Amino acid sequence: MAIRNIIKEGDPMLNKVCRPVEKFDGRLAQLIDDMAETMKEANGVGLAAPQVGVLRRVVVIDVGDDHGLIELVNPEIVEHSGEQECVEGCLSSPGQYGITKRPAKVKVRGFSRSGEPVEVDGEELLATACCHEIDHLNGILFKTHVLRMLDPDEVGGK
Ligand code: NI
Predict the structure, then answer these.
(1) CB within 8 A of 22, min separation 6: which ones?
(2) Residue 1 lies in a domain
(3) What are the C-alpha distances in Å from 140 to residues 8, 18, 94, 118, 136?
(4) In angstroms, what is the span from residue 17 Cα to ligand 1's centroid?
(5) Closest by alpha carbon to 107, among 78, 67, 130?
(6) Is residue 2 part of a domain?
(7) I want to staple 140 with a disulfide (CB 3.0 to 4.6 A). Which of 40, 135, 145, 152 is the partner?
(8) How far is the CA of 91 from the centre of ligand 1 (A)?
(9) pLDDT tens digits for 27-81?
(10) What is the pTM (predicted TM-score) of this model?
């Protein structure tokens, strides 16, 4: 496994629509392992492949709940309900946080690294993370959804 460089906001790579994964091979497994390690090292709760310069539909999420590490290939939000206000940030925009509105619950379908179907039901932070990371695959950054950016002194320990 290896830590990969996280691309920062302003790089046009982050505005591209990513292509679906077609080959569930060792290269995909390597990408997912590297993304998980990179996310962990950066203390993130999610990371999308374009953030490490790979324009493919792959995300990793770990919000620290009992889902553990979630790996999703070609993920789609198939159901969403309710609404929540979130404090959201992004590893590509270090130190910046804003208030967003997202669905309170989502159902996501995708595939594992070996091509098995995976379904995730997410609420609260996990719902936000699913929306945020899948947005990345469509070239959308969280600031698109921000109602108000937070001042650094409002962010506290984050
Ligand atoms: Ni992000």
Answers:
(1) none
(2) no
(3) 13, 11, 16, 23, 5
(4) 14
(5) 78
(6) no
(7) 135
(8) 6
(9) 999 999 999 999 999 999 999 999 999 999 999 999 999 999 999 999 999 999 9
(10) 0.96
